[in-house]
Amino acid sequence: MTTDDLLRQLYDFTLTGNGPEVLSLTRQGLGLGLGPETLLYEALIPALEEVGARFERGDFFVPEMLIAGKAMAGALEILRPLLAETGAQTIGKIVMGTVKGDVHDIGKNLVNIMFEGAGFEVIDLGVQVAPEKFLDAIREHKPDIVGFSAFLTTTMPMFKANINALQKAGMRDQVIVMVGGAPVTQEYADVVGADGYAADASAAVVRAKELLRARRVVAPV
Amino acid sequence: METVLSSASRQVRIGGENPFCIIGERINPTGRKVFQEQLRRGDLARVEIDVAEQLAGGAMVLDVNMGAPLCDEAELMTRAVGLIQSRCDLPLCLDSSIVEVLEAGLAAYQGKALVNSVTAEDDRLDAILPLVKRHGAAVIGLPNDEEEIPEQPARRLELARKIVDVATGKYGIAIEDIVIDPLAMPVGADTSLVLRTLETIELLRDELGVNMALGASNVSFGMPDRGAIGAAFLPMAIASGLTSAIMDARSQQLVQAVKAADLLTNRDPWGAAWIAAHRARQAGPGPAAQ
Protein backbone atom coordinates (compact mmCIF):
# COMPACT_ATOMS: atom_id res chain seq x y z
CA MET A 1 0.00 0.00 0.00
CA THR A 2 1.33 3.45 -0.87
CA THR A 3 1.27 6.10 1.81
CA ASP A 4 -1.36 8.00 -0.19
CA ASP A 5 -3.59 4.93 -0.23
CA LEU A 6 -3.06 4.49 3.46
CA LEU A 7 -3.96 8.08 4.29
CA ARG A 8 -7.02 7.83 2.04
CA GLN A 9 -8.15 4.64 3.79
CA LEU A 10 -7.45 6.06 7.22
CA TYR A 11 -9.60 9.05 6.31
CA ASP A 12 -12.43 6.84 5.02
CA PHE A 13 -12.43 4.49 8.01
CA THR A 14 -12.34 7.40 10.45
CA LEU A 15 -15.24 9.03 8.66
CA THR A 16 -17.27 5.83 8.93
CA GLY A 17 -16.15 5.21 12.50
CA ASN A 18 -14.41 1.86 12.00
CA GLY A 19 -12.26 1.80 15.16
CA PRO A 20 -10.32 -1.45 14.56
CA GLU A 21 -9.36 -0.44 11.00
CA VAL A 22 -8.36 3.04 12.15
CA LEU A 23 -6.08 1.53 14.79
CA SER A 24 -4.52 -0.94 12.42
CA LEU A 25 -3.97 1.66 9.68
CA THR A 26 -2.43 4.06 12.20
CA ARG A 27 0.07 1.36 13.22
CA GLN A 28 0.73 0.46 9.58
CA GLY A 29 1.25 4.10 8.73
CA LEU A 30 3.83 4.50 11.45
CA GLY A 31 5.45 1.29 10.21
CA LEU A 32 5.68 2.77 6.71
CA GLY A 33 7.52 5.72 8.19
CA LEU A 34 4.68 8.24 8.18
CA GLY A 35 5.01 10.75 10.99
CA PRO A 36 2.34 11.03 13.65
CA GLU A 37 1.65 14.58 12.49
CA THR A 38 1.05 13.44 8.94
CA LEU A 39 -1.45 10.82 10.08
CA LEU A 40 -3.17 13.36 12.29
CA TYR A 41 -3.31 16.35 9.96
CA GLU A 42 -3.70 14.55 6.63
CA ALA A 43 -6.25 11.89 7.59
CA LEU A 44 -7.76 11.98 11.08
CA ILE A 45 -8.49 15.69 11.45
CA PRO A 46 -9.82 16.15 7.90
CA ALA A 47 -12.08 13.13 8.48
CA LEU A 48 -13.54 14.60 11.67
CA GLU A 49 -13.95 17.96 9.94
CA GLU A 50 -16.00 16.20 7.30
CA VAL A 51 -18.03 14.48 10.04
CA GLY A 52 -18.78 17.91 11.53
CA ALA A 53 -19.71 19.38 8.16
CA ARG A 54 -22.05 16.49 7.42
CA PHE A 55 -23.59 16.77 10.88
CA GLU A 56 -24.20 20.46 10.37
CA ARG A 57 -25.85 19.79 7.00
CA GLY A 58 -28.08 17.14 8.57
CA ASP A 59 -26.45 14.32 6.57
CA PHE A 60 -24.82 12.74 9.64
CA PHE A 61 -26.49 11.90 12.94
CA VAL A 62 -25.39 11.77 16.55
CA PRO A 63 -24.32 8.09 16.66
CA GLU A 64 -22.18 8.57 13.54
CA MET A 65 -20.47 11.51 15.15
CA LEU A 66 -19.86 9.57 18.35
CA ILE A 67 -18.43 6.51 16.65
CA ALA A 68 -16.15 8.57 14.40
CA GLY A 69 -14.93 10.42 17.48
CA LYS A 70 -14.30 7.13 19.22
CA ALA A 71 -12.36 5.76 16.25
CA MET A 72 -10.17 8.84 16.23
CA ALA A 73 -9.65 8.70 20.00
CA GLY A 74 -8.25 5.17 19.59
CA ALA A 75 -5.71 6.41 17.06
CA LEU A 76 -4.85 9.39 19.26
CA GLU A 77 -3.90 7.09 22.10
CA ILE A 78 -1.12 5.72 19.92
CA LEU A 79 -0.18 9.05 18.40
CA ARG A 80 -0.24 11.30 21.46
CA PRO A 81 2.96 10.06 23.10
CA LEU A 82 4.71 10.21 19.73
CA LEU A 83 3.45 13.72 19.11
CA ALA A 84 4.67 14.74 22.55
CA GLU A 85 8.13 13.34 21.71
CA THR A 86 8.35 15.36 18.51
CA GLY A 87 7.28 18.43 20.48
CA ALA A 88 4.40 19.01 18.06
CA GLN A 89 1.97 21.71 19.12
CA THR A 90 -1.73 21.02 19.26
CA ILE A 91 -3.80 23.68 17.57
CA GLY A 92 -5.14 24.65 20.96
CA LYS A 93 -6.06 23.48 24.39
CA ILE A 94 -9.52 23.68 25.91
CA VAL A 95 -10.74 23.06 29.44
CA MET A 96 -14.39 22.00 29.37
CA GLY A 97 -17.04 21.41 32.01
CA THR A 98 -20.73 21.51 32.82
CA VAL A 99 -21.30 24.29 35.37
CA LYS A 100 -22.07 23.84 39.05
CA GLY A 101 -25.65 22.78 39.74
CA ASP A 102 -25.97 21.04 36.40
CA VAL A 103 -25.44 17.33 35.72
CA HIS A 104 -26.17 17.24 31.97
CA ASP A 105 -23.28 16.07 29.84
CA ILE A 106 -24.43 14.66 26.50
CA GLY A 107 -24.10 17.97 24.65
CA LYS A 108 -20.77 18.77 26.27
CA ASN A 109 -19.41 15.36 25.30
CA LEU A 110 -20.37 15.91 21.65
CA VAL A 111 -18.55 19.24 21.73
CA ASN A 112 -15.48 17.53 23.23
CA ILE A 113 -15.44 15.02 20.38
CA MET A 114 -15.53 17.74 17.76
CA PHE A 115 -12.73 19.65 19.50
CA GLU A 116 -10.56 16.54 19.75
CA GLY A 117 -11.42 15.80 16.17
CA ALA A 118 -10.16 19.21 15.15
CA GLY A 119 -6.83 18.55 16.86
CA PHE A 120 -7.45 20.34 20.13
CA GLU A 121 -6.29 18.94 23.42
CA VAL A 122 -9.43 18.66 25.55
CA ILE A 123 -9.38 18.57 29.34
CA ASP A 124 -12.85 17.54 30.44
CA LEU A 125 -13.69 18.39 34.06
CA GLY A 126 -17.04 16.58 33.91
CA VAL A 127 -20.29 17.90 35.41
CA GLN A 128 -21.06 20.05 38.46
CA VAL A 129 -17.83 21.98 38.03
CA ALA A 130 -17.53 24.76 40.59
CA PRO A 131 -15.83 28.07 39.69
CA GLU A 132 -12.77 27.26 41.85
CA LYS A 133 -12.34 23.98 40.02
CA PHE A 134 -12.32 25.79 36.67
CA LEU A 135 -9.73 28.23 38.05
CA ASP A 136 -7.52 25.40 39.32
CA ALA A 137 -7.70 23.62 35.98
CA ILE A 138 -6.85 26.83 34.10
CA ARG A 139 -3.84 27.41 36.37
CA GLU A 140 -2.69 23.83 35.91
CA HIS A 141 -3.30 23.32 32.18
CA LYS A 142 -3.00 26.88 30.85
CA PRO A 143 -5.62 26.33 28.13
CA ASP A 144 -6.34 28.73 25.28
CA ILE A 145 -10.07 28.31 25.83
CA VAL A 146 -12.36 27.43 28.69
CA GLY A 147 -15.82 26.09 27.82
CA PHE A 148 -18.82 26.33 30.14
CA SER A 149 -21.85 24.16 29.40
CA ALA A 150 -25.33 24.54 30.95
CA PHE A 151 -28.59 22.79 30.13
CA LEU A 152 -30.94 24.64 32.48
CA THR A 153 -32.11 28.23 32.69
CA THR A 154 -31.33 28.00 36.42
CA THR A 155 -27.71 26.99 35.87
CA MET A 156 -26.92 29.40 33.03
CA PRO A 157 -26.21 32.20 35.54
CA MET A 158 -23.13 30.18 36.55
CA PHE A 159 -21.50 31.46 33.34
CA LYS A 160 -21.46 34.90 34.88
CA ALA A 161 -20.34 33.53 38.25
CA ASN A 162 -17.46 31.70 36.55
CA ILE A 163 -16.45 34.77 34.57
CA ASN A 164 -16.57 36.88 37.74
CA ALA A 165 -14.34 34.34 39.46
CA LEU A 166 -11.88 34.56 36.56
CA GLN A 167 -11.89 38.34 36.81
CA LYS A 168 -11.40 38.31 40.55
CA ALA A 169 -8.45 35.98 40.19
CA GLY A 170 -6.98 38.30 37.55
CA MET A 171 -7.17 35.52 34.97
CA ARG A 172 -9.91 36.74 32.67
CA ASP A 173 -7.47 37.90 29.97
CA GLN A 174 -5.51 34.65 29.99
CA VAL A 175 -8.24 32.57 28.45
CA ILE A 176 -11.00 32.71 25.84
CA VAL A 177 -14.39 31.95 27.40
CA MET A 178 -16.90 29.98 25.33
CA VAL A 179 -20.40 29.06 26.52
CA GLY A 180 -23.11 26.78 25.21
CA GLY A 181 -26.03 24.48 25.95
CA ALA A 182 -29.64 24.00 24.90
CA PRO A 183 -31.18 27.19 26.37
CA VAL A 184 -28.16 29.43 25.68
CA THR A 185 -28.30 32.12 22.99
CA GLN A 186 -25.74 34.47 21.43
CA GLU A 187 -27.42 37.35 23.19
CA TYR A 188 -27.14 35.65 26.56
CA ALA A 189 -23.49 34.88 25.89
CA ASP A 190 -22.89 38.56 25.11
CA VAL A 191 -24.67 39.73 28.24
CA VAL A 192 -22.62 37.53 30.58
CA GLY A 193 -19.44 38.64 28.86
CA ALA A 194 -18.39 35.41 27.15
CA ASP A 195 -16.08 35.64 24.15
CA GLY A 196 -17.86 33.03 22.10
CA TYR A 197 -21.01 30.97 21.69
CA ALA A 198 -22.14 28.41 19.13
CA ALA A 199 -25.40 26.60 18.64
CA ASP A 200 -23.92 23.15 18.03
CA ALA A 201 -20.76 21.11 18.44
CA SER A 202 -19.39 21.57 14.99
CA ALA A 203 -20.10 25.32 14.92
CA ALA A 204 -18.33 25.58 18.29
CA VAL A 205 -15.07 24.37 16.75
CA VAL A 206 -15.34 26.83 13.87
CA ARG A 207 -15.98 29.65 16.34
CA ALA A 208 -13.11 28.53 18.58
CA LYS A 209 -10.69 28.63 15.66
CA GLU A 210 -11.85 32.13 14.74
CA LEU A 211 -11.38 33.30 18.30
CA LEU A 212 -7.93 31.75 18.49
CA ARG A 213 -6.86 33.37 15.23
CA ALA A 214 -8.13 36.75 16.38
CA ARG A 215 -6.32 36.42 19.70
CA ARG A 216 -3.05 35.29 18.15
CA VAL A 217 -3.09 38.23 15.74
CA VAL A 218 -3.42 40.76 18.54
CA ALA A 219 -1.32 38.87 21.08
CA PRO A 220 2.01 40.48 21.95
CA VAL A 221 4.87 38.53 20.39
CA MET B 1 -53.33 4.83 41.43
CA GLU B 2 -54.86 7.93 39.85
CA THR B 3 -53.38 11.41 39.68
CA VAL B 4 -56.14 13.95 39.21
CA LEU B 5 -55.34 17.29 37.55
CA SER B 6 -57.86 19.98 36.83
CA SER B 7 -58.50 23.35 35.25
CA ALA B 8 -61.38 25.55 36.37
CA SER B 9 -63.83 23.33 34.52
CA ARG B 10 -62.21 20.04 33.51
CA GLN B 11 -60.60 17.09 35.27
CA VAL B 12 -57.96 14.85 33.75
CA ARG B 13 -57.00 11.56 35.38
CA ILE B 14 -53.60 9.99 34.90
CA GLY B 15 -53.04 6.28 35.49
CA GLY B 16 -55.38 3.55 36.68
CA GLU B 17 -57.66 2.40 33.89
CA ASN B 18 -57.49 5.77 32.18
CA PRO B 19 -56.11 6.35 28.71
CA PHE B 20 -52.46 7.38 28.51
CA CYS B 21 -52.15 11.07 29.31
CA ILE B 22 -50.68 13.15 26.46
CA ILE B 23 -48.99 16.28 27.82
CA GLY B 24 -48.23 18.71 24.99
CA GLU B 25 -44.60 19.89 25.08
CA ARG B 26 -44.74 22.71 22.58
CA ILE B 27 -45.15 25.83 24.72
CA ASN B 28 -41.43 26.04 25.36
CA PRO B 29 -38.98 28.54 23.84
CA THR B 30 -35.89 26.27 24.05
CA GLY B 31 -34.39 26.07 20.57
CA ARG B 32 -37.09 28.36 19.09
CA LYS B 33 -35.38 31.59 18.13
CA VAL B 34 -38.39 33.51 16.86
CA PHE B 35 -40.50 32.53 19.87
CA GLN B 36 -37.67 33.63 22.21
CA GLU B 37 -37.58 37.05 20.55
CA GLN B 38 -41.34 37.37 20.82
CA LEU B 39 -41.20 36.51 24.51
CA ARG B 40 -38.48 39.08 25.04
CA ARG B 41 -40.89 41.67 23.64
CA GLY B 42 -43.64 40.31 25.86
CA ASP B 43 -45.54 39.02 22.83
CA LEU B 44 -47.54 35.85 23.63
CA ALA B 45 -49.28 35.51 20.25
CA ARG B 46 -47.32 32.34 19.48
CA VAL B 47 -48.60 30.72 22.66
CA GLU B 48 -52.15 30.94 21.34
CA ILE B 49 -51.16 29.15 18.12
CA ASP B 50 -49.31 26.47 20.11
CA VAL B 51 -52.39 25.94 22.28
CA ALA B 52 -54.69 25.57 19.26
CA GLU B 53 -52.37 23.17 17.42
CA GLN B 54 -51.86 20.93 20.42
CA LEU B 55 -55.53 20.91 21.26
CA ALA B 56 -56.34 19.87 17.70
CA GLY B 57 -53.63 17.20 17.83
CA GLY B 58 -54.92 15.50 20.97
CA ALA B 59 -53.17 17.05 23.98
CA MET B 60 -54.88 16.34 27.31
CA VAL B 61 -52.61 18.53 29.46
CA LEU B 62 -50.35 21.37 28.28
CA ASP B 63 -46.82 21.91 29.53
CA VAL B 64 -45.96 25.61 29.88
CA ASN B 65 -42.30 26.65 29.92
CA MET B 66 -41.32 30.32 29.59
CA GLY B 67 -37.58 29.75 30.05
CA ALA B 68 -36.21 32.15 27.47
CA PRO B 69 -32.91 33.76 28.44
CA LEU B 70 -32.97 37.42 29.54
CA CYS B 71 -36.71 37.50 30.14
CA ASP B 72 -38.73 38.01 33.28
CA GLU B 73 -39.74 34.38 33.35
CA ALA B 74 -42.06 34.74 36.37
CA GLU B 75 -44.01 37.55 34.74
CA LEU B 76 -44.26 35.64 31.46
CA MET B 77 -45.46 32.55 33.32
CA THR B 78 -48.18 34.52 35.08
CA ARG B 79 -49.37 36.01 31.81
CA ALA B 80 -49.12 32.73 29.88
CA VAL B 81 -51.17 30.84 32.48
CA GLY B 82 -53.91 33.50 32.33
CA LEU B 83 -53.91 33.52 28.55
CA ILE B 84 -53.96 29.75 28.12
CA GLN B 85 -56.67 29.28 30.71
CA SER B 86 -58.80 31.81 28.85
CA ARG B 87 -58.33 29.88 25.58
CA CYS B 88 -58.78 26.25 26.64
CA ASP B 89 -59.89 24.13 29.56
CA LEU B 90 -56.97 21.69 29.66
CA PRO B 91 -55.05 21.38 32.94
CA LEU B 92 -51.52 22.78 32.80
CA CYS B 93 -48.10 21.46 33.68
CA LEU B 94 -46.06 24.42 34.98
CA ASP B 95 -42.50 23.90 33.84
CA SER B 96 -39.51 25.78 35.20
CA SER B 97 -36.34 25.09 37.14
CA ILE B 98 -36.78 28.43 38.95
CA VAL B 99 -38.81 28.25 42.16
CA GLU B 100 -40.18 31.80 41.85
CA VAL B 101 -41.50 31.03 38.38
CA LEU B 102 -43.33 27.95 39.64
CA GLU B 103 -44.71 30.05 42.47
CA ALA B 104 -45.94 32.73 40.05
CA GLY B 105 -47.54 30.10 37.81
CA LEU B 106 -49.27 28.40 40.71
CA ALA B 107 -50.57 31.72 42.04
CA ALA B 108 -52.10 32.56 38.66
CA TYR B 109 -53.48 29.08 38.01
CA GLN B 110 -57.10 28.05 38.49
CA GLY B 111 -57.46 24.38 39.34
CA LYS B 112 -54.96 21.68 40.26
CA ALA B 113 -51.76 22.00 38.27
CA LEU B 114 -48.86 19.62 37.71
CA VAL B 115 -45.54 21.17 38.79
CA ASN B 116 -42.59 20.28 36.56
CA SER B 117 -40.41 19.51 38.46
CA VAL B 118 -38.45 18.70 41.60
CA THR B 119 -35.24 16.64 41.79
CA ALA B 120 -34.07 14.45 44.67
CA GLU B 121 -31.68 17.18 45.86
CA ASP B 122 -32.46 18.23 49.43
CA ASP B 123 -32.54 21.97 48.75
CA ARG B 124 -34.83 21.53 45.74
CA LEU B 125 -37.20 19.29 47.69
CA ASP B 126 -37.38 21.82 50.52
CA ALA B 127 -37.94 24.73 48.15
CA ILE B 128 -40.55 23.22 45.84
CA LEU B 129 -42.58 20.71 47.85
CA PRO B 130 -44.01 23.30 50.30
CA LEU B 131 -45.30 25.23 47.26
CA VAL B 132 -46.87 22.10 45.83
CA LYS B 133 -48.57 21.38 49.14
CA ARG B 134 -49.75 24.95 49.70
CA HIS B 135 -51.37 25.12 46.25
CA GLY B 136 -52.74 21.60 46.37
CA ALA B 137 -50.89 20.75 43.17
CA ALA B 138 -49.29 17.55 41.88
CA VAL B 139 -45.56 17.35 41.13
CA ILE B 140 -43.19 15.58 38.78
CA GLY B 141 -40.13 14.14 40.57
CA LEU B 142 -36.86 13.67 38.68
CA PRO B 143 -34.68 10.95 40.19
CA ASN B 144 -31.38 12.77 39.86
CA ASP B 145 -29.31 14.33 42.61
CA GLU B 146 -26.43 16.78 42.81
CA GLU B 147 -23.98 14.14 41.64
CA GLU B 148 -25.41 12.79 38.43
CA ILE B 149 -28.28 11.66 36.28
CA PRO B 150 -28.01 8.01 37.29
CA GLU B 151 -28.01 5.43 34.53
CA GLN B 152 -28.85 2.42 36.67
CA PRO B 153 -32.58 1.72 37.19
CA ALA B 154 -32.01 0.66 40.81
CA ARG B 155 -30.40 4.02 41.61
CA ARG B 156 -33.25 5.88 39.90
CA LEU B 157 -35.72 3.88 41.99
CA GLU B 158 -33.79 4.75 45.14
CA LEU B 159 -33.93 8.47 44.35
CA ALA B 160 -37.61 8.23 43.36
CA ARG B 161 -38.27 6.59 46.70
CA LYS B 162 -36.49 9.44 48.44
CA ILE B 163 -38.71 12.00 46.65
CA VAL B 164 -41.83 10.04 47.58
CA ASP B 165 -40.71 9.65 51.20
CA VAL B 166 -39.91 13.33 51.65
CA ALA B 167 -43.05 14.52 49.85
CA THR B 168 -45.43 12.26 51.73
CA GLY B 169 -43.61 12.10 55.09
CA LYS B 170 -42.26 15.60 55.54
CA TYR B 171 -44.75 17.64 53.51
CA GLY B 172 -47.94 15.58 53.64
CA ILE B 173 -48.38 15.38 49.89
CA ALA B 174 -50.47 12.39 48.79
CA ILE B 175 -48.54 9.74 46.86
CA GLU B 176 -51.15 10.07 44.09
CA ASP B 177 -49.92 13.59 43.55
CA ILE B 178 -46.34 12.51 42.87
CA VAL B 179 -45.53 11.65 39.28
CA ILE B 180 -42.05 10.22 38.78
CA ASP B 181 -39.98 10.84 35.65
CA PRO B 182 -38.15 7.61 34.71
CA LEU B 183 -35.73 9.74 32.63
CA ALA B 184 -35.80 9.25 28.88
CA MET B 185 -32.34 9.58 27.35
CA PRO B 186 -31.28 9.93 23.70
CA VAL B 187 -30.90 6.55 22.04
CA GLY B 188 -28.49 8.18 19.60
CA ALA B 189 -26.01 8.88 22.38
CA ASP B 190 -25.98 5.26 23.52
CA THR B 191 -28.27 2.55 22.22
CA SER B 192 -28.54 0.87 25.63
CA LEU B 193 -30.04 3.94 27.34
CA VAL B 194 -33.66 3.38 26.39
CA LEU B 195 -33.56 -0.15 27.80
CA ARG B 196 -32.47 1.40 31.13
CA THR B 197 -35.49 3.72 30.92
CA LEU B 198 -37.87 0.85 30.22
CA GLU B 199 -36.41 -1.14 33.13
CA THR B 200 -36.84 1.90 35.36
CA ILE B 201 -40.49 2.21 34.34
CA GLU B 202 -41.12 -1.42 35.27
CA LEU B 203 -39.31 -1.02 38.60
CA LEU B 204 -41.24 2.13 39.50
CA ARG B 205 -44.52 0.45 38.59
CA ASP B 206 -43.75 -2.69 40.59
CA GLU B 207 -42.06 -1.11 43.61
CA LEU B 208 -43.82 2.25 44.05
CA GLY B 209 -46.92 1.93 41.87
CA VAL B 210 -46.71 5.65 41.10
CA ASN B 211 -47.74 7.44 37.96
CA MET B 212 -44.97 8.47 35.62
CA ALA B 213 -44.23 11.14 33.03
CA LEU B 214 -41.18 11.48 30.81
CA GLY B 215 -40.00 13.71 28.01
CA ALA B 216 -40.59 11.41 25.06
CA SER B 217 -38.85 13.61 22.48
CA ASN B 218 -35.51 13.14 24.25
CA VAL B 219 -35.41 9.57 23.00
CA SER B 220 -35.07 10.45 19.33
CA PHE B 221 -32.73 13.44 19.76
CA GLY B 222 -30.01 13.52 17.13
CA MET B 223 -31.61 10.84 14.97
CA PRO B 224 -33.40 10.98 11.63
CA ASP B 225 -37.07 10.01 11.27
CA ARG B 226 -37.80 10.95 14.85
CA GLY B 227 -41.53 10.36 14.59
CA ALA B 228 -41.13 6.66 13.88
CA ILE B 229 -38.77 6.26 16.85
CA GLY B 230 -41.23 8.00 19.15
CA ALA B 231 -44.10 5.95 17.78
CA ALA B 232 -42.22 2.75 18.63
CA PHE B 233 -40.92 3.96 21.99
CA LEU B 234 -44.19 5.18 23.48
CA PRO B 235 -46.12 1.90 23.12
CA MET B 236 -43.12 0.00 24.54
CA ALA B 237 -43.02 2.38 27.52
CA ILE B 238 -46.78 2.15 27.95
CA ALA B 239 -46.57 -1.65 28.00
CA SER B 240 -43.89 -1.33 30.71
CA GLY B 241 -46.15 0.88 32.82
CA LEU B 242 -45.66 4.49 31.72
CA THR B 243 -48.86 6.46 32.30
CA SER B 244 -48.14 9.85 30.71
CA ALA B 245 -45.57 11.65 28.58
CA ILE B 246 -44.61 15.17 27.71
CA MET B 247 -44.54 14.83 23.94
CA ASP B 248 -45.29 16.41 20.58
CA ALA B 249 -49.09 16.32 20.69
CA ARG B 250 -49.27 17.86 17.21
CA SER B 251 -47.83 14.72 15.64
CA GLN B 252 -50.59 12.40 14.50
CA GLN B 253 -48.02 9.63 14.15
CA LEU B 254 -47.25 9.84 17.87
CA VAL B 255 -50.81 10.44 19.04
CA GLN B 256 -52.09 7.50 17.00
CA ALA B 257 -49.34 5.24 18.36
CA VAL B 258 -50.44 6.19 21.88
CA LYS B 259 -54.12 5.63 21.10
CA ALA B 260 -53.35 2.24 19.56
CA ALA B 261 -51.34 1.33 22.68
CA ASP B 262 -54.35 2.35 24.82
CA LEU B 263 -56.50 -0.01 22.77
CA LEU B 264 -53.98 -2.83 22.96
CA THR B 265 -53.51 -2.53 26.73
CA ASN B 266 -57.23 -2.51 27.53
CA ARG B 267 -57.54 1.20 28.26
CA ASP B 268 -60.06 1.76 25.48
CA PRO B 269 -63.08 -0.51 26.19
CA TRP B 270 -64.62 -1.90 22.99
CA GLY B 271 -62.18 0.24 21.03
CA ALA B 272 -64.72 3.02 21.20
CA ALA B 273 -62.22 5.88 21.27
CA TRP B 274 -60.15 4.31 18.48
CA ILE B 275 -63.19 3.92 16.23
CA ALA B 276 -64.51 7.38 17.07
CA ALA B 277 -61.17 8.93 16.12
CA HIS B 278 -61.25 7.07 12.82
CA ARG B 279 -64.76 8.37 12.05
CA ALA B 280 -63.74 11.91 12.97
CA ARG B 281 -60.88 11.74 10.47
CA GLN B 282 -63.13 10.27 7.78
CA ALA B 283 -65.69 12.98 8.33
CA GLY B 284 -63.27 15.34 6.67
CA PRO B 285 -60.49 17.78 7.31
CA GLY B 286 -61.58 18.92 10.71
CA PRO B 287 -59.07 20.42 13.09
CA ALA B 288 -58.08 16.95 14.32
CA ALA B 289 -56.94 15.76 10.89
CA GLN B 290 -53.56 17.28 10.10
Summarize the structure in words.
The complex is a heterodimer of chains A (221) and B (290). In chain A, α5 links the parallel β1 and β2. The mean pLDDT of chain A is 93. Chain A has a 5-stranded parallel beta sheet with strand order 2-1-3-4-5, sandwiched between helices. Chain A folds into 2 domains: 3-86, Methyltransferase, Methionine Synthase (B12-binding Domains), Chain A, domain 1, CATH 1.10.1240.10; 92-218, Cobalamin-binding domain (Rossmann fold, 3-Layer(aba) Sandwich). Chain A is globular, with a radius of gyration of 18 Å. Chain A has helices at residues 3-15, 19-31, 36-57, 62-86, 106-117, 131-141, 157-168, 186-192, 201-218, and strands spanning 92-98, 120-124, 145-149, 176-180, 196-197. In chain A, α6 (131-141) packs across α7 (157-168). Chain A contains 9 helices and 5 strands; from the N terminus they run ααααβαβαβαβαβα. Chain B has 290 residues and is of the alpha/beta class. Chain B has one domain (2-282): Dihydropteroate synthase-like (TIM Barrel, Alpha-Beta Barrel), CATH 3.20.20. Chain B has helices at residues 33-40, 45-57, 73-87, 99-108, 122-134, 153-170, 193-207, 226-240, 252-264, 272-282, and strands at residues 2-6, 11-15, 21-27, 61-65, 92-95, 114-119, 138-142, 178-180, 211-215, 244-247. Chain B has an 8-stranded parallel barrel with strand order 3-4-5-6-7-8-9-10, surrounded by 7 helices. A two-stranded antiparallel sheet of chain B has the order 1-2. In chain B, β6 (114-119), α5 (122-134) and β7 form a beta-alpha-beta unit. The model of chain B has no long low-confidence stretch (mean pLDDT 95).
